[in-house]
Predict the structure.
Amino acid sequence: GGMWGGDPELGAKVERRKDAVLAYLAEVEAARKGRESAKKALEGLLRGRAVAAERRKEIARAKGRVKDLTRKVVEEEELLGEMKELKASLTTKLELESVLSRAEASLSQRAVTLIAAQALDAGTPSGHSTPHPQSLGHVKSMAAEKAQNDRRVLDDLLADTRIRTNFLIAALHSVYPLATLSDGVTRTICGVPIPPDAPIHAVNFGYSSSSVVNTSSSSASSDEECVATALGHACHLVSLMARYSLLHLRYTPIPMASKSYMRDPCIPTTRSNGKDGSDFPLFFRGVERTRALAAVQMLSRDVEQLLACHGLMGVDASNNSWILANL
């Protein structure tokens, strides 16, 4: 009472105003906290949208890769179907060669029979007289003409077979496209390059070593993956080319994507060496480096064998892309 001059009404009014101010300050504080909560919720929503957009991009890229793989599988199935047709035509060619050989033998036997019959008609045994030279020449001429016609048909079939084989091998370019980068040296297969500094270029090496490749840097690991993927594609391409060319390769390629192998059939698999005795990896991570280099050398020998089969000369092994250059 003494503070407000003994006026209780004024004191009550001041207290009410004080309560109103305190309520207003509480509302302001609640509004501030609400704005901070709304701001955090908006930031979380924006982060969720960014994550969702990135997921959508990843899904789109995955769908693209699946589409490309599906297209490659379809193209490879079509090539395999054409290869079956080619094998059927080659079987027909071999059957035709057999028929031609039997026809030539039959013509020769028929010529002898005709000569003997002509000699009997003339009243002299064939064993005591010489048949008429004009009849003998006519029979030989007919036999030679027939053999020449059959040989011409066989040559046409062989030419068609070669054309079909070359077409199938050329069609592999759409399955495993080979290209050269802008530097003019580095070559790619399916867009995967072999880095120029990749340690796969070697000349002399043996089949045993204790050095195991175990790289820890991310750039070297990425290079190893590129090299393994490119060599796996090249391994499958060499395998298909050999099948279409009906060529038995010295070293057997075993395509398994980035975990492909080269097999040397001359090395026997015993109980001591196991499966790794004749299989050499076409990748460098976690394996003996010398065996991986041996696999690269085996693949290059198969490529040289394919070149020799088609009468082509290979390029000089001056860089890491020489296998792709020869292909």
Q: What stands out?
A: The beta strands are 178-180, 187-189, 192-193, 252-254, 261-263, 279-281. The chain has a mean pLDDT of 77.
